[in-house]
Structure formats: C-alpha cells, structure tokens
Amino acid sequence: MYRYDEFDAAFVASRNAQFANQVARRLDGSLSEDEFRPIRLRNGVYLQLHAYMLRIAIPYGTLSAKQMRVLAQIGAKFDKGYGHFTTRQNIQFNWIKLIDVPQILAELAEVSMHCIQTSGNCIRNVTADHFAGIAKDEIADPRPIAELIRQWSTEHPEFLYLPRKFKIAVTGASADRAVIRAHDIGIQIIDDVKRGIGFRIYAGGGLGRTPVIGKIIKEFVTHEKLLGYLEAVLRVYNSEGRRDNKYKARIKILVNETGLEEFIKQVEAEYAISDTSSVDVDADEIARINAYFALPKLLGRSETKYDAALNDSAFADFAKYNTILHKIDGYVATTISLKPIGGIPGDATSTQMLAIADLADKYSSGEIRITHHQNIVFPHVPKDDLPDLWAALGALGLATANIGLISDIIACPGLDYCALATARSIPIAQEISKRFADLEKQAEIGNISINISGCINACAHHHIGNIGILGLEKSGRENYQITIGGDATLDMALGERLGPGIDAEDVPDTIERIINRYLHLREEGEEFIDTYRRLGIEHFRVAFANQGQILSEDL
Amino acid sequence: MPIIDKEGNFLAVVGNIETISNSAAISDVMAQFANAEILGIIFPVHHDGRGYSLAKKLRCAGFNGKLRAIGPLIPDQFSDLIACGFDEIEISDEQSLRQPLAQWLAAKEISQHSFQNNNSSKISIFQSRRQKIAANRQLTSVRELP
Hints:
Chain A is an alpha+beta fold. Helix content of chain A is 36%, strand content 18%.
C-alpha cells in the first residue's frame, strides 16, 4: 500500500491548517458564502437534508486496517455509529456537525487520510479496480498510476475552478471493474506488442441526466507522458467547457458538442504546445511509487482445511460467490457483502468497521479495499483461513453470500439523506432484496446487477445496471422508471426504458415479473444480459405492463 | 483599485492597461499582444477558472510580459494564480477592505506545499523528493569511499 512520506504528510497538515483558517475567515465575514462554498466542497463538506455530510477520500479504494479503525471511531464519536461506503469507493458520514470537522480532519491526518477534492468542481478522488494487484486477468496494477494522478491532481492550481466535477478511473485488467467508460476520463492499461505497457485514454463518459459512454481519444500514451497528456485534456476542458448551464458543463457535453474528432484535434494541439517538462514524471518517482504496491509476503499454503470446509454447503456458497482466485496460489480475494438481505446497501456500523479492521489484520495482511459496488474486499486471504474468517464474519452479520447476485444492489442514499434526491432508493433496495432473499432462487437467476438512483444525477449508475431503477417525483408522489439492458463493462451499454414510471409499492412485483420473464425466455448458459441482448426489450414489455399480477405465462 | 503583486505588495493602479476576456483565443491574443509589457485577463466571477488556463497557455506560447488577473478574486487564489503565470492581481476597493493585505499574505504563506512544478518560487513535492534521493545517493557514495 502507498504510505505517505514526509512531504505527503506535511501537505495534508498544512491543508488542514489552511481550511481552519478559511472557516475562521468565513465566520468573521472576510469570505462571503459564495466565496467559501467551493472551498468547503473541495474539503469534502456538503450541506445535506438534515445535517452536514463529510465525504472522506479512500484513494482508489485502498485502505489499511489502521485507517478503517479511525473511520470506525469517527462514526462512533461524530456520527450515529455508522458510515456509508459510496459508489466512488469513498466513505461518507451523514450526521456531522460543522464544528467537529477540524477535529475529524486532524484525526484522519494521523492515519494519512483526508477529504481533499471529494467534492466540488475539481478533479475528484481517483478510482480503480478493487482487485488491483491480485486479479489473474491483470496486465499491470492500476494503483501506482492512480496514486500518481492523485498527487498530480491534488490542489492543481490550474484546475480548481473547472466548469464542473471531473472524475478519473483506471483499470489494469482485461475485464473492466472500474467502470472507466462512465468517467470523464477512463484510463485502460494496455500491453502493446511494439511499445510495451502504456495507457489507452477514454473521455467524455458520464451518467447523470445525459448519460454518455466514454470514447477513445488516445490509443497509446506512455507512463512518462501521461500527466502531460491529461493536463492537455483538462486545459481544453477548462477553457472550452460550458459554464452557462450546470447541467451541460461536464466534459461529455463538450465532446459531443465539439465532435469527437475536433475535440481530439484540440487536445493534440494543446499537448503539442504545452510545456510538459513540468509534469513529465521521471523513472525514479515511478519506481518509488511502484515499490509501495508490491504484494505482501504471501507464503505457499496448504488448502486442506479449505477443501474440507467445502462440505458445509453454506461455506461452499460463500466461497463460490464471495471469493475470486488470487494471483498467488493458495489465496483468495474475499468480498464482504454490505448488502445483507433487507439491509441498507453500503452501510457499515462502527462496530462492524472495527471488527473488519481486526479481521483484516488477522486474515488479509492488514489490507482492505472498497468496491464501487459498495462492498468490502480482503485482498489476500489464505484459503485455509477462509473457514475461520467466514465464521467470524457470520457472527458480525457480514457473511451474506450474494456478490454479483440480484440482492447485491447498488443504491444511492436517496431521499432518506440527500438534498438532491427526488425519491427514496434505500427502501426500494431493501424490498427487492427481501423479495429475492432465497439464495437458491438468486443462484438460479445468476449474475445480474440492479442499480437504484434516487434522482436523475444517477449516483447509483442506474443507466448501466442490467436493471436500472430511477426514482423521480411526479405530482407529489415517488415514481420509479425501470430500464433494462444496461452494462457496466468495457462493452458499456445504457439501459432502455420499459415504460412509464410506476409507484414504489409496485416495484418489487414488477422486478419479479421481469425476472420470471427472463427465466422463461433464457437459453442454456445465458445470464440476464445475454437474454436481453439476444431478444431485445420488446420481449420484456409484456412482463412490465402487467402490473399488479403475475401471469402464469411468465412463470 | 488596489493591486497585489507577486511579492505581496499592495500597489495603486496607475494608468490603463490592455485587457482580454478569459475566453479569448490564444492565436488572436498573441497576434495582437505578443510584445505587450503587461496584459490583463478578466475574471468575471472568482469561480470561473478559464483565466488560469489562459495564463498558462500564454506562458506556453512564449508571452513574456506581465500578466494581471483582474476581478473579484480572493486571497485563497493568490498562490494558484501565480503558479499559472500571473504576476499581479487587481481587486476592488470593497474587497481590499474586506480582505486586507494581511489575509493575502497569510493565504500565500499557508499553501507552501505543492505537488506541481510551476512558475512560483515554491519547490514542488516531486522536486523535493528528487533532491532527497540525490542527496541520499551522494551520502551513500561518500560512505562507500575507502
């Protein structure tokens, strides 16, 4: 894991002093609310529906057991005893008092954490594949480059007042687990036959009210030149991005309105005249950062205990759904589901966080990851320790076996917390999850993603869920639009709407009818998305329109 | 209308200077003002960041004159403006009363650490690391002498 050196630590300390000074100047009237707002946001402090919300950066979703302990303490001391992991691998606390923020920032700084650029119209916290460094399909670990981008983008003097927020994601594997094509910039590590390891750059992706899939703007950039190239993209965006309408201010709109070819031309022209010597990274710095991400010492282990435990079907289910094989034989990466049946997706109590930290020390070399699916990963679990880990998780209510299944739902905080929301999303997720509580049923349905956003801003990425649910408000009532066919992988696709919006209480029935329709239509070996792709949306409309009752024909 | 210069002095405005909009095309600006001694870039509001990139582009294009940022800018932007190539900032009288010089100096002082290499006198964190690595190497090689 990356560890702060003296310079990183000094930076965060002075940043905290700076924010304290800015708060003081806001209070004495030197800074107006309009002047203070972007500063507050760039430090992760939002004004929400009921209280302040503080969003803490977990760069590329990686944190240590020690850091998790501090998050648990913050939840216990300053919130109501829990925190919420987000779809951008961060954590947010929803019940913070403004007066406590400096103390929280100080406690975070003790363990090399901060809230820098988790909000506001700037380059946000960088995200990456949660299986980085361990997945068998990996070309190269995306974390060193994500770390380099974190440093470069931190308080970048030119890009603190962009037209709108700017999100970057990196993947280093052949399967994209970082949703890079839904980001303002997506970076894919590739291994070119002639040129070696480098980066393919996508731009202009984003969801929200105008969902757009990111397009390739550069086939290959070298490690040394990457920051200079990113700077050219940002410079074009900062200069040309729309500022007249906040809903048209993201880079996706600029790329669409300018035209892809012309946009690429502008970036190339900008890059050609830029003095990139100031951001080109030398080999020493790349080597310094790379060294931090070496695997911990993982010794060859027996698998006899693991094999024996598979006789217990509940353990076998957990092993099947919640683990993937590690690069190193005898190890698995284990996903801890924060989606218990009927629970709140992404929520963890302080007690759970503390216990997770202890278990990570014991079973995962002290390392933890947060996924954009709002789950937690122990990256390095010896297979023979998995039965013990599973038992310990079970005691904490954290052993739900459902990763990738229908109850592993992504949901935003929705109208229960969020000032922007138009409808609730958490209760919808809870009801659907209860409807499909039976693991046997879930296994029969297979891999499927349900994403629920409580407003058009699409924090839960409903457009790219196999089933997407968007909560809106229609004449004073919550109203939910259902889409199907979304895909969050490199073959990204946006879901299609099945029909007019429906009431909250009809959502679980409707989802069940859609699922039953799929089970009826699917051919051997097909997942939901395959059946949809083979047949198209029309075959599902009959299930959707039939509100209130489930036809036997669908069963 | 006071001006704050790079070194942190409050100066009074003397005479008029040429100014450009923050959306001006770089080719037009260079065609007209390439040899200007001083050029002002207008910030219509403090959170419109186009002026930062325009200054950076002018510096990349070889503009050697002084650059002045003009608009309702705040002390917290001081360091960043200099880093992007500005030499001075012109604010309104109202603002200079609400945000006196001491606040500008304090804001600049407090942000001494930066990850970016830029125009200011600040040494970037990347440079500091490089120096440290070089110093360590030297130390090691001295130790290795017989």
